[in-house]
Amino acid sequence: MCVWPLMLSRARAACAAPVEVKKGGKQMEKTNREYMAEPARVERTLQRFTKMTLHELKAVQQKKRNYAEWCMDGVIAIENLDREKAETMSYMDIICFLHNIWGDDRYAGIRNGDGTAYPSDLCQDFTYKMLARLLLDVQMKSVPIRLFMELPLKAFYGYLERISGDALLSGEYRMVCDEYVKLKDLSTVELAGVYEATIKDVLRLCNNVFCMAWIPTQMELENYSQSIMSAYRLVERLLVKSFRLAFPEQFYMDRIRTRYAQDHKTA
Asked: Which of 235, 169, 156 is nearest to 202 (CA)?
């Protein structure tokens, strides 16, 4: 008997159904947001999500939407990693590579046909956009990702700050909220207010901005470009920088590079 549909239906029910709790002898309804904001639930959700492997992410993405490959193929080629070993990378290892490779000026990026190179920051922005679209694309097929996307921003950042003791995370939360409010005015999709916003709301907003066409009569080119760049930085803050601040020891390249390196056999 296949249990996967049953597991997914239970996860959907957990995200959608209100929970009845007793307080002061009265029945009170706990909203989905309150339910997902519980520290123990945030912890379990993040533990499951960050352990997902590249292979698992590829397995649930839709056909012909190779977001995972677009995120990692350049990194695997530049670092000359073993592709079979790379399939076992966890989410934390993936974002460590993305941050260190494309965020380092020493790496030239993917070469053009004329021998010149794309600026590394453009490669970084592209991979972050693909990472956001990957999570949006597969959330209905993956229980860990669906639950991660339902986490309220305040609970997410509050938990990371609590376990790491890094006060910078509260500042990151405020900056994410500020950018969310600014970009929300441009959105063509209905989104939650900033204090009720979840990770999914932020990624939906960013993806909406990425898909936005420039209309000269409605927006200056400079403002349009700034909005796109703000969406890139928002994805980076939410999906990469938050974890880097909370778990700095997991962002050292030397820690993971040898784990996925090709085996060099000597004669």
From this structure: 235
Which residue type sits at 175? M
pTM for the model = 0.81
Helices (H), 17-115: 32-36, 39-50, 54-60, 67-79, 83-86, 91-102
Q: Quick one: which H or E segment has residue 261?
A: none
Q: How far apart are CA 141 and CA 244, in angstroms?
A: 27
118 and 110 in contact (C-beta within 8 Å)? Answer: yes
Q: What is the pLDDT of residue 244?
A: 95
263 membership: H or E segment, kind and range: none
- Report the C-alpha gap between 201 and 152 in whole angstroms: 9
Residue 45 in contact with residue 144, Cβ under 8 Å? yes
Q: How far apart are CA 67 and CA 152, in angstroms?
A: 25
Closest by CA position to 244, among listed 50, 57, 82, 76: 50
